[in-house]
Amino acid sequence: MFGYILRRLLIAVPVLFGVTIINFIIMRMAPGNPIDMLVSPKLPDAAREAKAIELGLNDPVYMQYWNWLKNLVMHGDLGYSMYTSEPVVSMILERMGPTLILMGTALVLGLLIAIPLGILSATKQYSKLDYIFVTGSFLGISIPNFFLGLILVYVFAVQLNWLPSGGMKEVGADGGFGTLLMHMILPIIVLVANVAGRNIRYVRSSMLEILGQDYLRTARAKGLKEVFVVNRHALRNALIPIVTIIGLEIPILFGGAVVIEQIFSWPGIGQLTLSSIMNRDYSTLMGLNLVAAFVVIAANILTDIVYAFVDPRIRKSYVGGAK
Amino acid sequence: MESLLSVKHVTTAFDTEHGKVTSTSDVSFDVKHGETLAIVGESGSGKSVTALSIMRLLGKNGHIAEGEVRLNGVDLAKLSDADMQKLRGNDVSMIFQEPMTALNPVLTIGYQLVEAIRLHMPLDKKEAKKLAIEMLTKVGIPQAERVIKQFPFALSGGMRQRVMIAMALVCKPKLLIADEPTTALDVTVQAQIIRLLHALCKEYDTAVMLITHDLGVVAEMADRVVVMYAGQVVETTDVYTLFEQPLHPYTVGLLNSIPSMDFDDKELQAIPGTIPSNYNALPGCRFANRCPLATEYCHSNKPELMDTGDGHLTRCFEWRKLQQGGHLQ
């Protein structure tokens, strides 16, 4: 098992570099450049040229990538933002917290809702309750995040004035846990509607497949109460495919942050990404790409590890493979 | 002697998209303390449904529509779900046809056995584990201490069926329902499993309701036999009479379809045709369309179970012909 994880980690390193190379090339192929965003078009060409040399934009593209990589590997440094001149690492770290709070809460809450409702929906298949849950989950998946977000802002912030329309705290105020919570409610509702909606269906269909299995009849024949048959014997098996889906959902959530954070002015990674793209802030974008690639790879490895925990057959093959 | 299990006029029905469908009708038989009753019949004759009706494990669409199932005088059809749960695995337990899928793949053998033990016995985890190891050793599993830590996928079909037997018998039930326990196993393993079942049930004084279509298994294990066809009991007798003097043409057909090793040139006998799918709607005997003895009368009149003497029951108008003429063919 340990050997297996180590191997996965080692493979992850070249993958990460591959992702950064591709990102770098695509980014440089896109039209526009940071100079246009930084310097007034009225300035003489000489001044533009001087800025370009300062930022290293006149070097050959492969040299630019090499310099970026050298800095990262030798010094753990992602360079400075071409737009704000702040260190990229500190910019990302500063934005990481808010995004993790938002996405983590949404994922946990979404699953806490989806798993019990999915189980209930499956065990009471074709009942009224089942129809209500399935319809609800369908709505949750179908309504686009930005649309639901805008409706919520309109109703609860603009019309009713119950909740703030965006940000993490009031302008100028220090903010505490209470205000953070108030600011989180609307974006969390949007994200949870989506996460729960998707997962209710996954849990339900996974559960339905397991509920017809022979070993549940064996469990019942032992005299086990139905509650335990479902929650001990069936759920353990139904969770195996769910684990994979949750693993895939972490990067999706991370990407979904771009839209949600923009609507709710949430000062997170998503907002930073969008503004960096607007500003053609190459160095910050490279840093963000690296983080995104890392999240995807980490989520995948984590999924495999959790997979082994829930499925002994997989665990066995890992142990065998590590020898 | 009072019967341990008494199934009386049980009709089992399923709710389907096309309305209520009757699967077995008017099934009656008794199992006495410590005896082995075999239920024989081809696929679709209602053997398994009868077994699951007794266990009340038909699923949410199936239920006992009529009749009663008495275990030690208590009508199981009328018990609450909670009371039925207390009975399952303790007074009456069951082993299934397919050992490869009957054990939960993500729980260890030990967990599944200990769970069964602790549901019905006031033991702590350690004592239950000790009993589990003892029981596994008893059913012939080598290195039981190691096996309880393993997951089902590590065991062969025969080993898994031994685990199922251990799990079913660990609480020393009064009745064991074995639903084709050897059908899915290799021929060499079949005999071992049957002998093991036989020996353990004799030791625990557990009555067995053995469902099978293998008449060899019947000869090996059973005291009495119930023959089922198209959801009905067609013949009930002791095992010797069944082989010597069967009084239902279907039973005769079953006996004739056992491959013979004696003559190379003897063709394998089969009962022509299949169970009619609309058997509930037939006006006459359900076997009539495949029966060599069937008359006009058989096609338009429903036979009841008739006592031919000594408790030998048959559902055939023409049984006297069989009695006089011996075997058909």
Automatic annotation (TrEMBL), chain A:
CDD domains: TM_PBP2. It is found in: Cell membrane. One of its GO terms (cellular component) is plasma membrane. Keywords: Cell membrane, Membrane, Transmembrane, Transmembrane helix, Transport. The keyword Transferase does not apply. One of its GO terms (biological process) is transmembrane transport. Residues 96-303 form the ABC transmembrane type-1 domain. InterPro entries: BPD_transp_1_N (IPR045621), MetI-like (IPR000515), MetI-like_sf (IPR035906). Coiled coil: none annotated. The chain crosses the membrane at residues 9-30, 100-120, 132-157, 177-197, 238-264, 284-310. It is a multi-pass membrane protein. This is Peptide permease. PROSITE patterns: ABC_TM1. It holds the Pfam family BPD_transp_1. Belongs to the binding-protein-dependent transport system permease family. The lineage of its organism: Bacteria, Bacillati, Bacillota, Bacilli, Bacillales. Signal peptide: none annotated.
TrEMBL record, chain B:
Residues 5-255 form the ABC transporter domain. PROSITE patterns: ABC_TRANSPORTER_1 (PS00211), ABC_TRANSPORTER_2 (PS50893). Keywords: ATP-binding, Cell membrane, Membrane, Nucleotide-binding, Transport. Pfam families: ABC_tran (PF00005), oligo_HPY (PF08352). GO terms for molecular function: ATP binding; ATP hydrolysis activity. GO terms for cellular component: plasma membrane. It is a peripheral membrane protein. One of its GO terms (biological process) is peptide transport. It is found in: Cell membrane. Belongs to the ABC transporter superfamily. This is Peptide ABC transporter ATP-binding protein. It comes from Candidatus Kurthia intestinigallinarum.
